[in-house]
Design brief:
Shape: globular
Radius of gyration: 22 Å
Helix content: 25-40%
Structural class: alpha/beta
Bound molecules: ligand EPZ
Strand content: 25-35%
């Protein structure tokens, strides 16, 4: 099992480059099932992306990959049922249910896994498939969707909560359906817009209105080439690394308008943030100011940046409050922050962070993707040598994090657990 060994206390200075967005490329890879031939660029090298390619290969697709480029041919698809070996480690495996159902009128998948952030039901996904005319059966851990008619039928679907995954699955299931589908109260994250723009380039007919998304069913999709949008959460992550470590960092290859709420919070904390067309420059003070943050659906403050901003607030002047409104349990990393000397209380959906003067190195463990990245931010500013285990969680969503951090002055290396135990 690999770990990160970090020598904290160094200021971060220099430039980092964002890669393609994990939460855009994953639904787009599931959407490839609907197209005969797809060429993608700016594909990040992440373990979740490799898992999605494994699913596509299992289905029967032909895959060619070369660094950030991928070519996917789908006319060989013959399997339509995904087992837990393919779905148990990744939440976004559930998105294949919609695309397989949309093209082949049948799909089956074991319940998805992924980061443990509390209950993560898929009731909205399954209710939507039923509204489109599919027969959906829960077969004790595996979901089977079948359209008994010749095709799915467009419908009006209202989401009780703007679920990102449910919005994506409804779009994928309805692109080739008969008639029009309307999603009321959809998720509006930029990753949804990227999925829609990919599908429209392949010949779909989807429009995003102010409070709804309209999908006019088409007969088929065509060959398409597409470049994945930059990762806004990776950009937010490097802003947090800089903010927590008196950083002076230019974050390139990003879309600043995709994370304006994050920029606003770092400015409130006392950071100087300059916005350019495809980059953001952040310079942090020696000590940050405490703030209040509530996570909300886009364009509100993203839940995926919640642990990261918490890491930056551990040594802020004053007491901060973070309210997590999206997931039931996304404060697990706080137990690890306390091992570093942080002063934190969790009260229901709120985390109360009393800023301390110093945090200290310790051996800590990543339990989920963004919590793991937040531990890196905290260990970078903790005095002494820290070891973070469980970094396979981090590899799910960040390409070469240690290389990027070393390029801006951090002391971080990836070691095997055995190396760490040998000392
Ligand atoms: C996507 O997860 C992202 N994952 C998450 O990023 C992100 O945190 C989340 O959206 C919110 O922005 C990917 O895109 C692969 P949801 P998803 O459906 O689709 C409840 C990361 O770190 N809900 O918007 O699973 C659910 O329990 C990951 O990159 C239902 O109750 O999120 C949660 O409380 C973590 N029933 C809330 O909605 C449903 O049928 C939001 O979930 C579906 C969701």
């Amino acid at each position: 099992m690999a770990c990160f060994l970090i020598e904290g206390g160094r200021k971060l200075e220099g430039e980092v480059y964002c890669k393609g967005a994990k939460n855009a490329v994953l639904p787009i890879l599931a959407a490839c099932v609907l197209c005969p031939d797809v060429t993608l660029t700016n594909v990040p090298e992440l373990s979740d992306v490799s898992r999605s390619f494994k699913i596509l290969e299992f289905l029967g697709c032909e895959i060619e990959r070369d660094k950030d480029r991928a070519h996917i041919k789908t006319d060989g698809i013959k399997n339509l049922a995904l087992g837990s070996d393919l779905t148990s480690k990744m939440r976004s495996s559930v998105i294949f249910l919609g695309s397989l159902l949309g093209r082949f009128k049948m799909s089956q998948a074991s319940y998805p896994g992924g980061c443990e952030l509390g209950a993560r039901p898929i009731d909205m996904h399954l209710d939507a498939f039923r509204r489109l005319g599919a027969d959906v059966k829960d077969m004790h851990g595996s979901i089977r969707c079948v359209c008994k008619e010749s095709n799915l039928k467009g419908s009006s679907i209202t989401l009780s909560f703007p679920s990102v995954g449910a919005t994506e699955n409804i779009i994928l299931a309805s692109v080739l359906a008969n008639g029009e589908t309307e999603i009321i109260n959809p998720a509006r994250e930029p990753e949804i817009e990227d999925l829609v723009s990919f599908l429209n380039r392949a010949g779909a007919d989807i429009s995003i209105e102010s409070g709804s998304i309209h999908i006019k069913g088409v007969r088929s999709l065509k060959k398409v080439s597409y470049s994945i949008m930059p990762d806004r959460i990776e950009a937010a992550t490097y802003m947090a690394f800089a903010a927590a470590n008196e950083g002076n960092v230019l974050i390139r290859n990003c879309c600043p308008n995709h994370f304006e709420s994050v920029t606003a919070s770092f400015r409130e904390m006392g950071c100087n943030v300059e916005i350019y067309k495809n980059s953001v420059y952040i310079r942090a003070p020696q000590r940050l100011k405490a703030i209040r943050v509530s996570t909300m659906p886009y364009p509100g403050f993203p839940t995926d940046a919640q642990s990261l901003i918490m890491a930056a607030l551990l040594r802020a002047e004053g007491t901060s409050v973070i309210v997590e409104n999206i997931f039931d349990s996304r404060f697990k990393v706080s137990e690890e922050f306390i091992k570093l000397g942080a002063s934190l209380d969790i009260v229901g959906r709120a985390a109360i962070i009393k800023g301390v003067d110093e945090i200290y190195s310790a051996d800590v463990s990543a339990r989920d993707l963004r919590g793991g990245a937040a531990l890196v931010a905290a260990c970078l500013c903790a005095r002494g040598k820290s070891c973070i285990s469980g970094i396979s969680h981090i590899d799910r969503g960040y390409e070469n994090m240690e290389g990027n951090l070393r390029s801006i002055g951090a002391s971080i290396e990836r070691i095997s657990k055995e190396q760490d135990e040998k000392g």
